[in-house]
Design brief:
Number of helices: 1
Radius of gyration: 21 Å
CATH class of the largest domain: Mainly Beta
Order of helices and strands: EEEEEEEEEEEEEEEEEEEEEHE
Structural class: mainly beta
Largest sheet: 7 strands, mixed
Helix content: under 10%
Number of strands: 22
Number of domains: 2
CATH architecture of the largest domain: Sandwich
Strand content: 35-45%
Shape: globular
């Protein structure tokens, strides 16, 4: 990079099971990263027109997570490191230690990036519907992640992974089934509570829509921007209350009618059965 140059970086966590906690470090000091988009959606702070920037010292990026951020190059002749901090994925989770990902050199003769941004930013998009956070949900559902050994007499046997709608019988995903686990109406907004009843992290991901994170372990949070992947903390094995996130799910887009999936995006878990299907039916007059 050229000294003091500002660039927009897009990072995709395309790994199978690895969490990233991104940080740019210069001289042992974490540098600010200005997040402008998560999971392909610009951060516009609660539906306001015009993009916003959220400045962070590090960015947790689960598998399937995407982030766009702006960053300023270090002074001439110096170098910084793009790294991932260690991530505690739980007693049953993976080993995700601190490690470098790339070295950032600051040189006056640095080559130009292959992609450039226009000198004048695009005009802000108009908000065409009520902001998701201001919509009252019509339904609330609870889903939970769970695991069990395939052989109850052998704790080291292959693990069966499940994501279950509360009230249904826990079972791994059956690709032969033609019955959806959840049925919703296009046009509705729902609140989903996702619990983690296991000793490892899971990354909840859903196709076709984005959602708003409105609660973390029962406490309201103010993060007024959309995403389609979110981390769910692991259970400590003793607490009578399971860790959870509360999500406001947006089924208002008429283009999402049909059947699609939700799942943990750690692919070992997904392939092991931690997935379900949702059917979005055409809107009906009320």
């Amino acid at each position: 990079m050229k000294p003091a140059e500002r660039q927009l970086w897009r990072v995709v966590n395309a790994s199978a099971i690895t969490y990233l906690d991104l940080q740019i470090v210069l001289g042992g000091v974490a540098q600010r990263m200005g997040v402008v988009s998560l999971d392909g959606v610009p951060i516009n702070e609660g539906g306001m027109t015009g993009n916003r920037i959220v400045w962070e010292g590090h960015i947790l990026l689960p598998p399937a997570g995407r982030v766009d951020f702006v960053f300023q190059a270090p002074p001439a002749g110096s170098q910084a490191s793009l790294m991932t901090r260690s991530v505690d994925t739980g007693p049953a989770g993976e080993n995700d230690p601190t490690r470098p990902l790339a070295t950032i050199l600051s040189k006056a003769d640095a080559t130009e990036p292959r992609s450039t941004l226009p000198a004048s930013p695009a005009p802000p998009l108009r908000q065409t519907s009520v902001w998701l956070g201001d919509v009252k949900p019509v339904h609330e559902r609870k889903l939970y992640f769970s695991e069990k050994p395939s052989d109850p007499n052998n704790p080291n046997s292959p693990t069966i992974f499940m994501v279950t709608v509360d009230g249904q019988e826990p079972a791994p995903y059956d690709p032969r089934s033609t019955v959806a686990n959840i049925t919703v109406q296009q046009g509705d907004v729902e609140d989903w509570v996702i619990e983690n009843r296991t000793r490892e992290l899971h990354a909840f991901h859903i196709h076709q829509i984005h959602f708003l994170l409105i609660g973390w372990n029962g406490v309201p949070v103010d993060e007024p921007f959309l995403r389609d992947t979110v981390n769910v903390p692991y259970w400590n094995g003793a607490s009578p209350v399971y860790p959870s996130v509360r999500l406001r799910m947006d089924f208002r887009d008429p283009n999402i009618v049909g059947t699609f999936v939700y799942h943990c995006h750690l692919l070992e878990h997904e392939d092991g059965g931690m997935m379900g299907t949702i059917l979005v039916q055409p809107a009906t007059k009320r």
